[in-house]
Each structure stands twice: as C-alpha cells, then as structure tokens.
Design a protein that fits this description.
seven-stranded antiparallel β-sheet, single chain, alpha+beta, four-stranded antiparallel β-sheet, globular, 242 residues
Length: 242
C-alpha cells in the first residue's frame, strides 16, 4: 500500500488490477445498463460529451455521461465498489476523504470519438485543500482501441493548463506534450486512481462493443461542504469527461 501511495503522490495516478470481483462487476453492469436505457429518468443528469453532431441522421450518443447516478439508483451508495474505492482514497490521501460525486461514462460501439487531453481540476471551483482522487472503474475489458485511460506522469508544481471547449461543445481540452503518455489497459473490475491535476485522455471506441466506466471522485469532507455552500453539487455544472 505504501508503494502505491508514494507513486500516486509522485506521478498523480496508480493502477489497481482488481478492485472488485466479477460478481460485483455484473451487479454494476445491470444497474448501469438500466440507467443508460432510461433516457427519461436520467435526462436532467445526462449529456453527450462528444458535443453537437453535424450528422443529423445519427441518433446514437457517442460518449454518454450520467452525473450522480446514485441519485436515481440509490442502491449504488452502499455498493461494495463504492466502499472499496473510498477506503483506497483514505489510504492514499487521508481519513477525511469522502465521496464527492459519482459518474457514468459510456463510449458507444464504432463511434471513434476521443476524449481530449485535460485535467479534471479545470472543471472545478478553486478550493483551499486541493487533495482529490478519482477512481475510474472498468466494467468492460478496456484497451487502447475502445478507450482505456492514458496518463502523463505529473510534474511537481505544474499548474492547471489553459483549457478550452471543443468547437462543437462537450468536453474541455488543453494542448500538451503527450510523448510520455502511458496507456493503462484494464480487465473488468480493475481501476485507476488519479488526482485533479494529472493530464489524461482516452481514444475513441472503434470496436463492436460498448466501453463502460464508473467514476467515483473523492475529496476531503470539509471541501465537499465548501462546494455545497457555493452551490456546487455536480449535477448542473459544466460537463465532465473520459
């Protein structure tokens, strides 16, 4: 554990080969797919991170994001994945770490739409305590061709880079040197943790199957309270990513 913690502090990310069991993955997939299919119930939390599509005939959401799915599927809060990820966040950054928000991001088959390089902190308000850990859980086998995560090891003291919106809306992006980027393939149930300043990216999905990811973001309890006082609950903010 100490080796993982030191790597997380130094590089800004770590890989965990198996956070949850195949049975736990199956439970999450069932909930996940139900929410993906229910566009009416999730409408106020749902968006396509790919932005506007110039192809008027295309009806498929390319990168579906559902913020705070546990608001609708309340059984998620007590799911073992949430509990295991929270313990990892505490081990990495301190006992005051708690779940701030959860998020589903699905890349549909044959959509080939990348999520551009960005830092999560570019989406967030400024907070005095900047500790954060985002747990990206693979619910499918993920690899470069269907959109696994890529990271650039963090450089100490490097600030948030200037970010822009994609021309057609959707996600934020930034310009960066990606020559040292590392791809992180995962089996179902594996995960990565990264902090808010770590640059990351994922390619589009060029395969015949979907790429489902569940993301859980943790930060200090006092900072969650600070956000809520500012009216930030991660349901109506600028859209998120990956």
């Amino acid at each position: 554990m100490e080796t993982k913690r030191l790597k997380f502090i130094k590089d800004g990310f770590i890989k965990i080969d198996q956070l949850i069991t195949p049975e736990e993955v199956d439970t999450l997939r069932t909930i996940y797919d139900t929410l993906l299919q229910d566009k009416a119930k999730t409408a106020h939390l749902r968006s396509d991170l790919a932005g506007a599509d110039n192809n008027a005939d295309r009806k498929v959401e390319r990168i579906t994001q559902i913020m705070r799915p546990s608001i609708i599927a309340q059984e998620l809060i007590n799911n073992s994945a949430y509990k295991k990820a929270e313990q990892w966040a505490k081990d990495l950054l301190g006992e005051d770490m708690e779940l701030d928000f959860d998020m589903m991001i699905n890349k549909a088959p044959n959509t080939n739409t990348p999520t551009p390089w960005h830092q999560d902190a570019a989406y967030w308000i400024a907070m005095p305590d900047k500790r954060s850990a985002s747990c990206w859980i693979a619910l499918d086998k993920v690899f470069e061709e269907n959109g696994c995560m890529w990271f650039i090891p963090k450089i100490e003291g490097k600030p948030i880079l200037p970010h822009k919106n994609l021309p057609n809306g959707g996600a934020l992006y930034c310009e960066t040197d990606s020559s040292k980027a590392l791809s992180i393939p995962l089996n179902p149930g594996g995960c990565t943790f990264h902090d808010g300043f770590t640059l990351h990216f994922s390619q589009g999905n060029t395969t015949e199957t979907q790429r489902r990811a569940l993301i859980l973001n943790f930060r200090p309890k006092k900072m969650i309270e600070f956000e809520r006082e500012q009216g930030v609950d991660h349901t109506g903010e600028r859209k998120q990513r990956n």
